[in-house]
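User: structure tokens for this one?
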Amino acid sequence: MWLIYPLYSLNWIYIRDFKDFFGKKDNYVKKVVDKIPSKEVYRLFAAKAINLFYLLFVPMLLLNQPWYIVLFAWITMHMCGSALGVVALVSTHVDEDAHFPVADKEGNLSATWALSYNKTLRRRI
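Assistant:
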């Protein structure tokens, strides 16, 4: 897993968003809206293009660096950010005292996370 964790943000930003929009699998986006508006599809592509432009092409142009140095820095940035993010996420999910609420038939939770956390604290005291 430690070889996959550093690639998490690349997957999330450049693959997962497209899977959520265009994939056949039922996901949160598909549960909230029946059909994604065309405007949002254009916004998705524009956001990804702008992201790549200012993170890759602007540094190449302004810093006068070779493309492979900028690409290496970009990948390193994603790997470090992913490792930190995943460690923060994983550490909360492997806790033995973690309680995960169950949703009702409509997908609603009976209480907010704060209420659930408060009940857990009262049981410990």
